[in-house]
Amino acid sequence: MRKVYRLQAIGGSYYIALPKEWLKRFGLGKGSHVEVVVEDDGTLRIKPIEIQEEVQEELSKIEVEVQERETLFSLLITLYLRGYDIISLRFKGSAIASTIRDAVNRAKNILLGFEIVDEDSFSIVLQVLSSSDTEIHTLIKNMCRIARSMYLDSIVALIERDAEKAYSVEARDQDLNRLYFYITRVIRKKVISGIVEPKELLKLVDLRMAVKAVEEIGDDAKRVAKIVQEVILNDIEIDINNIERLKMYVDELDEIYRNTMNKIEKVVPLPELLESLYRCEKIRTELSNFRKDLVEKDPKALTLLSEVIYSYEDIATHVYDIISLIYSSI
Predict the structure, then answer these.
(1) How far apart are CA 174 and CA 58, in angstroms?
(2) Domain boundaries of the chain, sorted by first residue
(3) Which spans of this chain does the record mark as coiled coil (predicted)?
(4) Which of 45, 53, 122, 235 could connect to 37 by a Cys-Cys bridge, CB 3.0–4.6 Å?
(5) Hey, how many other C-beta atoms are within 10 angstroms of the C-beta on 61?
(6) CA distance 306 to 242
């Protein structure tokens, strides 16, 4: 809401009243501390240094009367991502309790820190048991490590025809998704807090897009793992020379990805950024040409391998996007 305030003069100083709604929102009063920042364009920005825990808790609670059981799962994910810490579900009749609990358990399986803290015949109370001070970059690095292990183990499983390794990649995707949802929640809570500086806000938006790209890398790696399972189950023979060639491209891409992971919090010189982008695009193009050559030689026999290569093309595209977003502070 935009308002015009008149300056008041007392002695040799000038004063201005702060909006009551703003003071109430952050639990501020006489003696509270605020930070005053003068921007380069002359804008004066005021933000609270300490926010009362009672206010934070009040803002993060919501009570829901469950009417449509079919949409409850999606609703829980939405409320989690919007930053609510305590979600109270109310319903009438114990007959629908089991259906509601099934939806709650499904949500718990993919949402990090989401637990039932209270329950009776007509209600379930859920709470996100986590710290508000969670370091985003640490979480992102953890997510990047899981995604990396997935695409590396997928190609190794193909070379070694190791079904167990392929199954483990598929299982890891759930852990990756849980981190993705949690990081998205942490970022959104920071954005809607109203106290994030403009530069940090832009960085948070970039990081939100970057973690989505990492999550998609996991999806592509999972797709490869499923193909590997099919190859092993049906005893399909694939030329080891073609697999080794693919492994060479994956190793080159992995070098770029690891370098990117190690510089998430750093400012990278423009020449280095451009070099990483160039190398990533070069690998993607080489993978694409490799796939097309194989399909032309034997379209039917090489269908599964071409799908694997296509998935790694997608991974190269996602790595390219991550480089662009994480290094955008240069």
Answers:
(1) 31
(2) 8-51, 60-128, 136-326
(3) none
(4) 45
(5) 13
(6) 10
Give 8-54 pLDDT, tens digit per residue.
877 777 778 888 877 777 778 787 788 787 766 677 877 777 654 44
- The dihedral through the CA atoms of 45, 324, 329, 144 has a sign that is positive
What is the architecture, at CATH level 2, of domain 136-326?
Answer: Up-down Bundle (1.20)
Six-digit token pair at 226? 């499923």
CATH of domain 8-51: 2.10.260
| The CATH homologous superfamily of the domain defined by 60-128 | Alba-like domain (3.30.110.20)
CA-to-CA distance for 201 and 204, rounded, in angstroms? 5
Three-state DSSP class for 162? coil
CB 171 within 8 A of CB 180: no
Q: What's the average model confidence in pLDDT over 272-276?
A: 90
* Contact between residue 257 and residue 319 where contact means Cβ atoms under 8 Å apart: yes
3-state secondary structure of 206: helix
State the Cα–Cα distance between residues 153 and 165, nearest whole angstrom: 7
Contacts of 233 (CB under 8 A, 6+ apart): 163
Position 243 scores a pLDDT of: 95
Q: pLDDT digit string (tens) for 102-157?
A: 899 999 989 988 888 888 778 899 998 865 556 788 889 999 999 999 999 999 99
Query: In this predicted structure, what is the pLDDT of residue 299?
Result: 64
d(CA 158, CA 221): 12
Say which residue the tokens 């023979």 belong to.
237
Residue ranges of alpha helices (H) inside 193-269 are: 198-233, 240-261
Gyration radius from the chain CA atoms: 25
For residue 323, which of 264, 282, 247, 271 has the smallest C-alpha distance? 264
What pTM value is reported for the model? 0.78
Q: What's residue 192's pLDDT?
A: 79
